[in-house]
Amino acid sequence: MNFRHRATQKVLSLFPFRWALSGMRKTVEWRHQFIAKKAYKRWQQVRTTHPKPCHTHGTVQVIIPVYKGFEETKRCLQQVLSAQNKTSFQLKIINDASPDTRITNYLRELEANGALSLVENKKNLGFVASVNLGLRLAQEGDIVLLNSDTVVFDHWLDQLIACADQDAWIGTVTPFSNNATICSFPVFCADNPISIKQAQQFHELAQSMSLNSPIELPTAVGFCMLIRRQCLLAVGVLDEAAFGPGYGEENDFCMRAANLGWKNVLCGNCFVYHQGSVSFGESQKHLAKKALETLNRIHPEYLPLVNDFLLRDPIKPLRKQLTDAFFQTQKKPIVLMATQREGGGVQQHIQELVDYFKEKAVFLLLQPIAEESVELYWQPYGLSLGVYRTDDSQALEELLRQLPIIKVHIQHTRGWALHWLNWIKDLGYPIEYTLHDYFALTGNPKLTDRNHRFLADPQTWSATLPNELPPHISLTRFKQTQMELLNKSQRVNCPSRSLLNTYKQILPNCAYILTPHLDYELAAPYPDPQPRQPIQTEQPLRIAVLGALGPEKGADLLEQTARMASQEQFKFHLIGYAYRRLNRIISQTGPYAQAELKSLIQAYEPHVIWFPCQWPESYSYTLSTALELGLPIVAPMIGAFPERLEGRSQTWLLDWDLNPNLVISSLKTIRKELNQKQWPEWIQSRPTNYYSNHYLNLIGSPAAKEEKMQPRINLNEEHVFDFEKRPSE
């Protein structure tokens, strides 16, 4: 699926286009094309047959309806009042009977100081009625409708007015924003997670761009919408009767304006931050759907126009221009991440680094795609910056050399062609390599055979382990390339001692560092498990299993244990899902977002968390969640589990290869001990704080000398397990 159609899928979750696109195909229906062309032609005829409007400049009326969100409202008003503008304006606030007395008191204080004009509704009229009240009170000049959860920057109003002045038929102007559907940046039709500081940077870059003419939109976006006075007089106020709840009113206004010949345009020289809503409640979804049905009934050409616009995407060149300007002026260090396409713990580790360092660094993601090509992304937005085939690698290298890249951080090489791995090795940047599993050793990430059995003996790996390499890559060449990459890496991060020791057996001379993931640095020390209410005799032992379970993670063992323990006082609950349908005796939540995991666990109130894993996991983020909640844990004595749980109370480590009968026997013992045993305090080791203190310190350039590219850490037992003890560089 290409980027344009990915954008189309993203927009499905955003009103007013969600239902507009629910039946969209890769090509717009000929009927929609016909309707759209007919509408555009009609609008053009109106503009050519009617006299051009005559605009007069006056004081702009900035109207902000306010209801809830004290901090957001305060931030918005402070910025509107402090931002520099040559254009004169009056600020009109409609307080729609806010239930928050802080908002009311703050607005009255500003009015007393002469900063704004305040209207207070005696009762809540709703958004549309409040806007119309403001429009009727604004007797002169152009109008800007602004949401109270926005943030504007210097000369924002000047840019909107300058854009409107480019064509006498421009009726509404919408700026770029991080959260404005068709006017969103960096990613089209998405809520882009950026900071206000970064939004200000985008605004400053947008102001410096030279644009030919405004881009015509099918509709304005109501978070920030300039309306010319003549357009308002011709069209009238918002349709309060049809769109009173507050959905679709600006779209209806823009369609009425377009039918009279007015244009709705994007101001590419202005960027306004919009916090927006993370999600709609069920009632709001219903209202939005009903509003769109009304909109479609009144304006049957609306959906075809939107569909046509989305597939043409005329704003794409402008977004690219702004993206290029961002990277050309970038002063933050850039980390180039090389990784696989699959998600899981690798993706979670990348995301936590991107989130943690978002104010200090920029991250580019390089992922393999079909036919030995790679795709470059701008994180955290997932914005594609281009696809490069093997014969385009020189062009990609030239692009990267223009950027302040400090290192290449290899996260995973599954799916990578050897050409690209060698290209990374020879690129000239410092290399950091994080090991998440055993793929770099054997082409098999879990060291499991075709029956999903873990093979601990390295002597058996070459002959027994199936690999996940593309068919045209030999295992010998793959191992050689991986060895060269690891040997050339200035840092080889191992999130667990067991993973480090396994690699050290095969490749002893690499610059290994024990670096538990960033979540441990931020959460440690974990809380001690707290004493709990005794489990009553008639009460079942509630056992929760977490995550997405394949055979190696214990899905089959869980099912077999639950079936054999059906007569016991056990209740098994999988918070997640398995690679196949499991027996109904196991209740399941299904897939979940990572942010939901804690609340899902707490809702179930388990007596114990069980990890039935049967391969040596290198870290386990689900274990981190259980540790943060301070819950009793049952885990296998393999991989990262023993070292992460060492000395912890209310914790039981079992042989990883137990049969269901032995698991049941162990759970019976655990039930008794939970009621009877006294627990000692957990003495935890301190985190190394590698990521928070040292991750961005490795700085180099493509012109770095070869001796600087060699590993700078000599492996020895004194410091390999503690970054703070390593020799100074």
What do you see in this structure?
- The protein has three domains: 3-324, Spore Coat Polysaccharide Biosynthesis Protein SpsA, Chain A (Alpha-Beta Complex), CATH 3.90.550.10; 330-521, Rossmann fold; 525-676, Glycogen Phosphorylase B (Rossmann fold, 3-Layer(aba) Sandwich).
- Helix 2 (30-49) packs across helix 12 (302-312) and helix 22 crosses helix 26.
- It is built from 27 helices and 23 strands.
- It is α/β, with parallel strands linked by helices and 729 residues long.
- The strands form three sheets. Strands 1, 2, 3, 4, 5, 6, 7, 8 and 9 form a nine-stranded mixed sheet that branches. An eight-stranded mixed sheet has the order 13-12-11-10-14-15-16-17, covered by helices on one side.
- The radius of gyration is 30 Å and the shape is globular.
